[in-house]
Amino acid sequence: MFSKKSMVVAGALVLIALNGLVFSLDIIRKSSVYEAAARAAIFFVAPVQETLHSAVGFVDEVWTHYFYLVSVGYENDELKTQLEQVRQKNYQCRELALANERLRKLVRLKQKSPYEFLAAEVIARDPSPWYRTIVINKGRNAGIRSSDPVLTSRGIVGHVLRAAAEYATVVLIIDRNSAADAMIQRSRTRGIARGEGNGKCQFDYTLRKKEVKINDIVMSSGFDGIYPKGFRIGYVSKVVRRNAGLFQHIEITPFVDFKTLEEVMVLLNPLDFEEMAEK
Amino acid sequence: MRVVFYLLLGFILIALQTAVISGLPAIMTFYDMIIPFVIYFSLFRRFSVGFAVILVLGLVVDMISGAPNGLYLTVFMVIFFLFRNIANFFHARKIVLFTFCTGIGVFIENLVFFVFHIFSETSFSTSLNHLQMMVIQIAWVFLTAPILYRLLSVYFSQVDRLSNRFGSSYSMKQDNDAFM
């Protein structure tokens, strides 16, 4: 009726069920034979289990601390790149903030002044340290002409030497070929502010009897036909009165920091400045 | 074609000089980058090509500088002619000769400017400042001229190779056209 194979399977199932039934009996579970058999089983199996556990632990360790770290490494690289980008943006923001501050000052100068100004950027300097000129990125097409005064909010920078279509060369007030009719703001003593070529100016032709003090502010007098009256040039940093001679030796330190000059304002139509001032 | 590449390098050097190097702090007062260029032409290149290139560059520098017109051109030409035949008298390795001549070239340039300043009634203290600047520049020459020599040699040899290739392919094309 039943096949031989079916009989074997049924017998095995019966034996397993009987086995479970017998071992679940409390008497047998508490017997010393069972205890001994269990201890023996643990004795033989536990080391294998431990070994396996260690092996799995090792694999897990390798996975989490090596393969995983590879991806962490990639992530780290990416984060570093992002950090660099953020740093770069931060520098750019800081640079923009500084440029903003400088431009605000220029705009304030433009708003306060009755003259017509044109903002320009310094793009190059003189090839030789013997001469002090700069090149700005605005030229004749923007309305700039030769001899136009160039200023910043801090004071006079110089005047336009040559104007090309899109660029202009500006000779700085500290160049030895540059000079401006100037006066001391406090005492109204007049003289000529002449560049020395070393970053400072001399205040020439001031009579010895005229009182000039250190830190006196020197400003343009407006008589030279280039610079309008009242723009600051610098402050008196040295006064030497020799026993002989008609004039005293006065050194002016300009307010403008020519080493860090980046933006300037060109005063357009300076010949009309008296008329503009009257308006 | 070569002249175009030479002028291109010259303009790059002028731009480098005016837009980058001139903005460096005072201690970094670098010498005129055109001087080594002029020296290289004077020592190692054909007269006619060198003369043409130096003439153009001298005029350009004069135009962009605040110096009196013609001053740079004069200085460059003086240096160019002065060192033209120096290799016949001094037998040294090219790099040594180049460095030595560049140092003297920078000295001559500064000397001309210095004399010009003295005649222009500049105060003596100012001129002393410029002398200090000249010493710094010459120190820079001896530090950097050998490197510049290598760079210029590489550039000039590349330009030569390029223009030779162009010249030979051009002449081959002409030959082929003649046969056809």
Labels describing this entry:
heterodimer; A: 279 residues; alpha+beta; 6-stranded antiparallel beta barrel; B: 180 residues; mainly alpha; 7 helices; 81% helix; globular; disordered C terminus
Give an overview of the whole structure.
The complex is a heterodimer of chains A (279) and B (180). Chain A contains four helices and twelve strands. By secondary structure, chain A is an alpha+beta fold. In chain A, strand 7 and strand 8 (201-204) form a beta hairpin. The mean pLDDT of chain A is 81. Residues 169-180 of chain B have low confidence and may be disordered. Chain B has helices at 2-19, 34-44, 47-64, 71-82, 86-89, 94-119, 124-179. The chains are: A alpha+beta (279), B mainly alpha (180). Chain A binds chain B through residues 123-133, 135, 161-162, 169, 171, 175-177, 196-198, 202, 259, and chain B through 14-15, 17-19, 22-23, 25, 29, 32, 34, 61, 63-67, 72, 110, 113, 117, 120, 122-123, 126, 129-130, 133.
What overall form of chain B do the CA principal axes indicate?
A: globular
Which ranges of chain B are low-confidence, i.e. pLDDT below 50, for 5 or more consecutive residues? 169-180
Low-confidence stretches of chain A are none
Q: Looking at the structure, what is the overall shape of chain A?
A: rod-shaped
Percent in strands of chain A: 25-35%
Measured on Cα atoms, how large is the radius of gyration of chain B?
A: 19 Å
Average of pLDDT of chain B: 81
The DSSP helix count of chain B reads: 7
Oligomer: heterodimer
Helix content of chain A: 25-40%
Beta-strand residue fraction of chain B: under 5%
Structural class of chain A comes to alpha+beta
Main sheet: strand order of chain A: 1-2-5-4-3-12
